[in-house]
Amino acid sequence: MFNNYYFLRQLSGSLKEHLVGMTLGACFSQSKDELMIGFYKGGREQWIRASLIPNFNLLTFPLDYQRKKVNSIDLFKEAIDEEVEDIIQYKNERAFLIKLTNNWGILFKMYGNRSNILLIHEGEVVTIFQKRHIEDQNMDVSQLDRSLDQTKEGFFENGLRGTFPTLGKEALAYLVKNGWEDADKEQQWGMLSSMISKLENPKYYTVEENEQVHFLLFEQGTTLFETDNAIEAANEFFYRFSKRFFVEQERGPLLREIDKRLKQSRSYLKKNYARFEELTESARFEEIANIIMANLHAIPARTKKITLFDFYTDKDIVIKLNEFQTPQKNAETYYRKAKNQKLEVRNLEENINEKEEEMKRLQTHRDALNDLEMVREIRKYIKNNGLQKLQKNEPVFPFRKFEYKGFEIWVGKNAVNNDLLTQRFAHKRDLWLHARDVAGSHVVVKWKSKQPTFPINVIEKAASIAAYYSQRKTDTLCPVIYTPKKFVRKRKGDPAGLVVVDKESVVLIEPAPFSENLT
Fold first, then answer.
1. In what helix (H) or strand (E) does residue 473 lie, and over which residues does it extend?
2. Which residues form the NFACT RNA-binding domain (predicted)?
3. 236: which of 121, 177, 429, 437 lies 20 to 30 Å off by Cα?
4. In this structure, are residues 258 and 234 in contact, taking their beta carbons and an 8 Å threshold?
């Protein structure tokens, strides 16, 4: 209720006692949403800080203020050195005017997200502080006063909103909570009269409700601060609310991003747990191979399917065979599948462990951020723990990025992303890699001027990553081509991700993920 008409009426009355007779000595802005206005008389100062941040429009009143030497601009210079003659509160309107000598004035229009400060001369708007509210330049100040029939008869005829349009949502909610909608007109008038009495002769409460700080002219929720001084009330509420507001601005987006990643991680783990269970409990490739080897003499040539005794379960089992291969070759195929299965199980275990550790780190950061209550502490924690990359305003690196032995390894994420990596982000001296004859990610090892050749262990590491991010991910060994990027070209009309390699070398490598992802 800090922009409620009834509070502003009492606030402007308190300001009148403090400011009349003082001289306007300074008016400047050090940020686009804050205006500082300073008055002096003798050795006494009084400041008005107008914070017009969207969703947080509030006036506060420091007794002194040290202006910064940089990033500061003087405003309303025409009215400097004019004396305060009066403060005028407009009737039934959330606006008041600091009237200065020589027909100058500063108009405070406290309309929520449309709040603004206007310089007035002879009743006309000269300039406005918030330029985004361009319509304020044409405001008719003479029409700000609103005379309303706020008698019982006026209420019966025009209803609540027609009679008391400036009551405010908090007061309306209070009435509803106390039975307004079930009351008859007479009872409603009694409730309304009681509410108006509270609003016109209030104490001021800074309260906490639903983990939010609120400013009220009546008691409700958990009281954090109580006073009958309007200026003191505004300052105290600003301190308590801004502390939470700016803390939430600083850590809120980061916490939401952490929650998003935790949710994604839980979904990822659910799928991988299911696949792990399927591989470890359902597939029996090695056992089937052993059964075939034990029955080589009993399997006729060109057999597609055969029933054999399963000595693992003491039951018969139907085994599918390749009719064009010998029984021994079929067994070798099942052994190879078993080996690939074990490799996939190992990779799944590594990925699951890595994701679980990542979730622990994220949860630790989330808990720590929730415990911090100062903006500078939050910024320090973010910097010390390298969390800038989680913040939404940080540019997102378009590729997977790893580092090995001082070399950066970039990996494309899909066909279009592969083209972006190879055609726009890769230098001709970079090393380019790709799993041979199958779909997969383009991989680039960035060239270093101080180390012009690529060590064999770096090539092998990048090749194992290229194999892992390909359709040969579960193979025992995968051939990977590598070449300087200058030998890779794209033909006009080829689909996304397809390139031509004019010169290549090949390394046979086991597919493996890289655990130290920098992004």
1. none
2. 403-493
3. 177
4. no
Which pair of structure tokens corresponds to residue 233? 């009330």
* Site of tokens 């994701």: 355
What is the Cα–Cα distance from 490 to 511, expressed in whole angstroms?
26
Give the 3-state DSSP-derived string for 30-97, with helices as H, strands as E and coil as C: EECCEEEEEEEECCEEEEEEEEEECCEEEEECCCCCCCCCCCCEECCHHHCCCEEEEEEECCCCCEEE
**Amino acid letter, residue 258:** I
Rounded to whole angstroms, the Cα distance separating 516 from 333 reads 34
C-alpha span between 112 and 471 (Å, rounded): 57
CB atoms within 10 A of CB 100: 22
Say whether pLDDT at 373 is over 50: yes
In 311-423, the DSSP E strands lie at 315-320, 400-404, 407-411
Q: How far apart are CA 246 and CA 236, in angstroms?
A: 15
Question: Strand runs (DSSP E) across 240-336, as ranges?
Answer: 305-310, 315-320
> Are 391 and 382 a contacting pair, CB within 8 Å?
yes
CB 232 within 8 A of CB 239: no
Residue with tokens 């029409």: 143
* Selected residue with higher pLDDT from 127 and 62: 127
The candidate with the shortest Cα–Cα distance to 163, out of 173, 154, 171, 172, is 154
Q: How far is CA 503 from CA 271, 432, 466, 495, 500, in A?
A: 40, 11, 18, 21, 9
Q: Select from 390, 47, 409 the least CA-distant residue to 252.
A: 390
Q: Which residues sit opposite 165 in a β-bridge?
A: none
pLDDT bucket at 454, cuts 50 / 70 / 90 = very high
Could you please report the per-residue DSSP string of 201-224?
A: S--EEEEEETTEEEEESS--SEEE
Check: CB of residue 489 under 8 Å from CB of residue 438.
no
Cβ–Cβ contacts within 10 Å for residue 93, how many?
19
Structural contact between residues 188 and 182, judged by C-beta atoms closer than 8 angstroms = no
CB 482 within 8 A of CB 465: no
Joined together, the tokens standing for residue 426 give: 């890769």
DSSP string, 132-181: T-GGGGG--GGG-------SHHHHHHHHHHHH-TTS-HHHHHHHHHTTGG
Both tokens of 173, joined, read 């909610």
Query: Using one digit for the tens of pLDDT, what is the confidence trace for 428-445?
Result: 999 999 999 999 999 999
pLDDT at residue 391, as a whole number: 65
